[in-house]
Amino acid sequence: MAALIVTMIGLGWLMTTWKPNIQTTFTLFQLHKSLGVTVFVFLVLRIILRLRYRAPALPSEIPAHERILAAIVQALLYILMLAMPVSGYLVGTFSGFPTKPFGLFTLPSLVAQNKEWYETMRNAHETLSLILVAALLLHIAGALKHHFWDRNDILTRMLPERRPDR
């Protein structure tokens, strides 16, 4: 998820600032939309797994204010991971350009093309992306603080489990 989200942020910046030609720009937008659909599918699976399997409890030595901040940032990240693909889908729908994930199929347009709503949703999507970057930086800073300053296992618990048989 982290790699996809960072890729989406970079691709979003690239496709809105670099305009080599119409075909390349269109391809970048479709790739961004395709990855956005992928993020949404992975998010749904992640939420299902999170509801099924609880995250391990934080170590008891973590102060209350850090527990609260961690919960707020984590909730914000989940909200933004949901809001970004939804708002991006609405941007595409209101623009009149359909979303075709990896060219395999076309997502249905649930709303009609509308220039005013397109601008509103584009601005909302861009603002949400800036908030997402801030939340990600805060999350990363917290993880690094725990790893290098507090010297606890919070950061390593976020990494995929390493098994000796792999």
Give a concise summary.
With 166 residues, the protein is mainly α. The protein contains 5 helices and no strands.
Could you list the spans in which at least 5 consecutive residues all have pLDDT below 50?
A: none
**General form:** elongated
The pLDDT mean sits at 90
Q: What is the H-and-E element order?
A: HHHHH
The count of DSSP E runs of length 2 or more, i.e. the number of strands, is 0
What's the N-to-C terminus distance? 22 Å
Count of runs of 4 or more consecutive helical residues: 5
Helix content: over 70%
Radius of gyration: 19 Å
Q: Beta-sheet strand percentage?
A: under 5%
Going by helix content, strand content and strand pairing, the class is mainly alpha
Largest sheet: none
Task: Describe the structure in your own words.
It is built from 5 helices and no strands. The protein is mainly α.
List the helices and strands and how they pair.
Layout (H helix, E strand, L loop, with lengths): L1 H16 L4 H31 L11 H32 L19 H35 L4 H5 L8
Helix pairs in contact: 1-2, 2-3, 3-4
Summarize this structure as a short list of keywords or feature phrases.
166 residues; mainly alpha; 5 helices; elongated
